[in-house]
Design goal:
Oligomer: single chain
Radius of gyration: 17 Å
Largest sheet: none
């Protein structure tokens, strides 16, 4: 196997796994919002009213990190390879 193809395949799987985690997190926050907020509010001592903003920042940052660190290098390696 070519080293380039191994790295490309690795980044492809990383992208899929990370998007799966992102989708699971989003679904959990949408469907079980009260339960999740209650847990996070108690663990981190944060008022439930400010958790929506924190969740939005988390999901946006995670999506951007996946895009920059996994998807863009994967596409670049696919083009080069």
């Amino acid at each position: 196997m070519n080293d380039l193809s191994v790295i490309t395949e690795f980044l492809g799987w990383c992208t899929l796994i990370n998007y799966g985690i992102l989708i699971l997190s989003t679904v959990m926050l949408i469907t079980c919002s009260d339960w999740v907020k209650g847990i996070h509010s108690k663990i981190f001592n944060i008022p439930e009213s400010s958790l929506d903003t924190l969740y939005f920042n988390y999901l946006g940052s995670y999506k951007l990190a996946i895009f920059i660190l996994n998807l863009v290098p994967y596409i670049a390696l696919k083009i080069v390879g």
